[in-house]
Amino acid sequence: MNLSIVISASIAIFLSVFFFPLFNSTYWLKWRASLIPSTKFGADLIVKNGVIFTSDPSFPFANSMAIRDGRILRIGNYSSLQDLSGYGTKELNLEGKVVVPGFIDSHVHLISAGLQMARVQVEGVNRKDEIVRRVKEAVLNAKRGSWILGGGWNNDLWGGELPMASWIDEVTPDNPVWLTRMDGHMGLANSVALKLAGVTNLTKDPNGGTIMQTADGEPTGLLIDAAMELILSWIPEVSVDERREAMLRASSFALTRGVTTVVDVGRYFPGSSGVIHRAGRALSNWIYLGGVKAFADGSLGSNSALFHEPYFDDPHNYGLQVVEFESLFNMTIASDLSGLQVAIHAIGDKATDLILDMYESVALKNGKRDRRFRIEHAQHLAPGTADRFGQQGIVASVQPDHLLDDADVAIRKLGVDRAQKGSYLFRSLLSSNALLALGSDWPVTSTYPLRAIRTAMNRIPPGWDTAWIPSERLSLNDALIAHTISAARACFRENEIGSLLTGKLADFVILSSDSWDEFATGGSTSVNATYVGGIQAYP
């Protein structure tokens, strides 16, 4: 079983969920220095003359706050904090700028994102020849026989045609290549990689996966979901140093976007079931063990999300259930009994209904407790399903920026009626009293909370003039809450982070907006500075 991690200040299909407060190397040195106990009564830092959004409905705004030893000492009007100003207290005049709590990205693959930043970048590429050019360039800079790795391609950007090994074989005669699709549920291997892995026209589809074939039965180079393991098992394991560098690279980037905490759903403790009982949840001031993650289905773009009705563009295909229900049920029962939070990936409407049914059965069998079961993505819901989230107390962990890519795709793959009635139902979920937590799924899409918030508010995909399903738009307040305090509740960290209140960690973001009205009306807003534990981590 693989434990999940939250980063901040099982069986093989279960992945880790960790909670990490983010940092870079410069911040780390400042934070180490801050561990020296303070001998003064007053604040280390007073932040004043701003518009501070607290994410607390009982006290939504303040203009100043005092910070000591990484936590908020007091928040309110500047006049109420002046008694905390003493020898050594620094003051930061915001000059009217907007401040929000540090953003929590509720769903990332942090190390994968950091690794991808140093690999072949094909995200956003809209031409076949550009894919080939970038792979060729990588080969010229690589050793003969070494793996060429990358990802982020989206066939919908060049008209929908799926790539094939033959596209890149000519420029990669001596190097195996593996390029993952943007959603992580499909990958392209060249012929060298297929030969190395022994994938031929005789290779059978594994359970929960598909090897794409030509009309003649030959593998095209595309592998979907569980079939990707046929290639992945041959790729050399990333070293500890490479993983460390990737984490620092990704953390530094996330801080530029105002992200101070991530819920990482990568794989950290495969095969280990007793980590929490041995080490406890808090591995350090930075890492908190959250729970376990599993998969119920694949993705819409790969035609592997599981639906009650067949795909509009593939009438014999209902998608993939990537894990046997009995196995998933037994693992969820065991994880829940161990006190772990369970999060399960479900994109199609049938997958979500199956998981909601299973969660209900597990709760009845194991008894009442505050478990906060999560469904990751919840992108397409059957009629009435949104209400079940609130009724069962399920966390809906959603990624608004996915709809920017999926709007046209959903209409093509599901038909107009199904796509319009059941896709990205943010407002319906919130109205059902579901706990809505926003994230990015980085590196599927970049971690960018300010953009995600605008997407949730506007729902206007690229090339569109109007909102897609406008009744499902969120208000600014709802979207901010979902990226801060609700995201904290979704990972059991609401007492430490997610809002700017006395006693909590001083994680906050200074925005470029000079007033709340400017921010609320959709003006161009960016991150001026990010603070973690009261210390400036960016820039």
TrEMBL record:
Molecular function GO labels: hydrolase activity, acting on carbon-nitrogen (but not peptide) bonds
Entry coiled-coil feature ranges: none
Keywords carried by this UniProt record: Membrane, Transmembrane, Transmembrane helix
InterPro entries: Amidohydro_3, Metal-dep_hydrolase_composite, Metal_Hydrolase, YtcJ-like
Residue ranges occupied by any Amidohydrolase domain in the UniProt entry: 91-517
Gene3D superfamilies xrefs: 3.10.310.70, Metal-dependent hydrolases, Urease, subunit C, domain 1
TM regions (residue ranges): 6-29
Keyword Transmembrane helix: yes
PANTHER family documented for this protein: IMIDAZOLONEPROPIONASE, PROTEIN LONG AFTER FAR-RED 3
Protein name: Amidohydrolase 3 domain-containing protein
Organism: Gossypium mustelinum
